[in-house]
Write a structure and sequence with these properties.
mainly alpha
Length: 106
């Protein structure tokens, strides 16, 4: 049975392909088939060091339209906007504590 390609190897495949640009050479250097290289090459992949800096200012979306807009811009800002939207206000926390207190006392 063939050895499985690990996540570290997938990363290495993309790093080498980014530098070399030839799948057959990447396969030769890694000791794997060119088909495996072709399977795991991610089009447009770049090393993290070469990705553009993203300055994200996170604010709590006021409604569903703003949340959807924030989530459609960038994956990092999407996750941050979703987390920010899930945060409870002080009044909401007090309400939750009151609801919990009702269930505990019952």
């Amino acid at each position: 049975m063939a050895n499985r390609i690990t996540e570290a190897q997938k990363e290495e495949i993309n790093k080498l392909y980014y530098e070399i640009g030839v799948k057959a050479e990447v396969a030769r250097r890694m000791g794997i088939s060119a088909a495996s290289v072709a399977r795991y090459v991610i089009p447009g992949w770049k090393p993290v060091s070469e990705l553009p800096e993203i300055d994200i200012k996170i604010s709590k979306p006021e409604g569903p339209q703003e949340l959807i807009l924030a989530m459609s811009c960038h994956p990092v800002s999407a996750a941050a906007a979703f987390c920010e939207a899930c945060k409870l206000t002080d009044e909401e926390w007090i309400g939750m504590k009151n609801v919990q207190a009702e269930y505990v006392s019952v």
